[in-house]
Amino acid sequence: MKTIFKTAAIAVIGGITLTMSSCKKEGCMDQSALNYNHDAEKDNGSCVYDEGNPVTLNVNHMFGGNAMSTDSVYSDDQGTKYKFTRCDFYLSNFTFMDMDMSMKGMTDTMFIVKMGTSSLNMGNVDLTGHVHMMNAKIGLDSLTTYTVDPSTMPAGHPLSLQVPSMYWSWSSGYIFFAVEGVYDSNGDQVIDGSDATFEMHLGMHQFAVDDAFTIHQDLEANEALTLNLNLDYSQLFTGMDLANDNTTHTMDNMPLANALKANLANFLSVN
Amino acid sequence: MNKHIWIIASFVFLFSCNKEEVKDDSFVLEQPEGFPAMQIPSDNQLTKSRVNLGKKLFFDKRLSEDSTVSCASCHLQPMGFADNFQISPGVHGNLGFRNTPTLTNIGYAEIFFMDGGVPTLELQVLNPIENPDEMNMPVPQAIERMAAIPEYQQMALEAYDRPFDAFVLTRAIAAYERTLVSGNSKFDQEVYQGKNVFSQSEQNGYQLFLDKGCADCHSGFNFTDNDFHNIGLYEIYTDIGRKRVTILDSDEGKFKTPTLRNVELTAPYMHDGSLASLEEVVDFLNTGGETHVNKSSLIQPLNLTVSEKADLVAFLKTLTDWDFVNNEKHGIYYTYE
Predict the structure, then answer these.
(1) Which of chain A's residues have a Cβ under 8 Å away from the Cβ of B171?
(2) Domain containing residue B77: CATH number
(3) Which residue from B minimizes the CA distance to A168?
(4) What is the pLDDT of residues A149-167, one digit of tens each?
(5) Domain range for residue B313?
(6) Nearest-CA neighbor of A140 among A167, A122, A180?
(7) Domain check: are B170 and B191 in the same one?
(8) pLDDT-derived band of residue A107, with 50, 70 and 90 as boundaries?
(9) Under an 8 Å CB criterion, which residues of B touch A?
(10) Which of A31, A209, B125, B211 could be bridged to A138 by S-S, CB 3.0 to 4.6 A?
(11) What confidence category does residue A11 fall into, taking pLDDT thresholds of 50, 70 and 90?
């Protein structure tokens, strides 16, 4: 009888141990690691880290020479006053030209930059020696834009569903650039609750903007590269007449979408 | 030693017995005579638990901003999973700009919305939830609200082995919608099941449907070619149709060919609900439509007599599937066990 209990105990403990160990998915749980596995429930020590130069972009939100504020009232080229309420955009497809003039990609790195974003931690890339320039895209590449299903992306990922939305559910594809606000629609020179809103959303692959920024900086091995990403909101509405033309979801007002895209060329700078 | 092996084997047997008590979750989708097998994504094969979850969500008004509108508010089973508004009211009575389409046989559709802006049934789920003129609920907020309901968390784990999230929301509702198969109308009984049920008028109407070219676009088992056509409803379209998503001038005024199944129940008609009855639709098509540069060459005056128009309408009414409309399995009170 004693032997029976002993055997039974061994069987139960063995079964429980097997069950527990087989249920937990193992993998690297450090988000800064190259092989981070978001499905992992138990860290198995397999994390692999990039030994290159850590790159950080400090984001400066400017309006001309001053800090941009959602409390400030600005004027377009026609003198129409307006305020910003939202400016969100994707920044992706980063590449760096190193000392050998070859391009180092960080193609999986992407961000949604918002008016409250102060810095972007881009991870590591080996730029030891010298970095000549950085390329980046306002928007997303066409494959991502049209084939990624946002409902399959983990919460927190830039491509997951966002509030406010960065995805067109009526014409599947990501919104690259969204700028919204209020303009002086009644002409009383005051921005208040009686005024109308403007809303400009750019999407579709041909509306992504590829930017190239000259950097020229020497770097030691593993030395941090910190750059300033300057956003000049005064450039966004150059040549526009907000009182008369203020809404586009790209396809429904292509002339305004094209005008905004053209202005984005002067929106970003890096130093 | 043998005794030990037997005892261990007994425990293993006991453990495995517990696991095998899990109910059979497999779901067999009805495939009516004459219908092809439905193409279903590999990550969303039908199971009872998925369909049950999707159905519960489909009827749940909590998916809308103020908990007043569900999917079922505009897609009513007695009306072939459409409704009878010209434009359906959403939250706060907001009105969009298109007539509610039927969900009859929606699992067989190859592209979604009248302008074809969405490629999958799963992605289609997102728009009505977040559309300001429908449920006006940002999807992440809808997920947060529903995920806080323990019953939904449990159903999500059972159905998809993951907590309630955007994947579960979109997959489950799509899974339920794929079960909305209608294939036992009088037409099906006559043509696919070999029963002699058509009246003379219905038979005449069917022949006219074939001879007058209606079946060129309303083709196949589901009475749609899944393509886009400008039928000359207007000379100037305020709703530009497919051009809205392609930007091509050649797509202006083109809309996806709707299925005609259960069409009797889904009045009013056209993308904007501008024609109130089947008689009005036939009258319109009989004229050959307005002039438009993109109008399909298939749209020509039909030269129908009064009697022929009545026959054509009689045929269209044979596409009503009362078994489908009255099938309790599609309703909220039925649970697949």
Answers:
(1) 151
(2) 1.10.760.10
(3) B127
(4) 999 999 999 999 999 999 9
(5) 186-320
(6) A167
(7) no
(8) confident
(9) 3-4, 7-8, 11-12, 15, 113, 115, 117-120, 122-123, 126-127, 130-131, 138-141, 143, 165-167, 169-171, 243-245, 247
(10) A209
(11) low
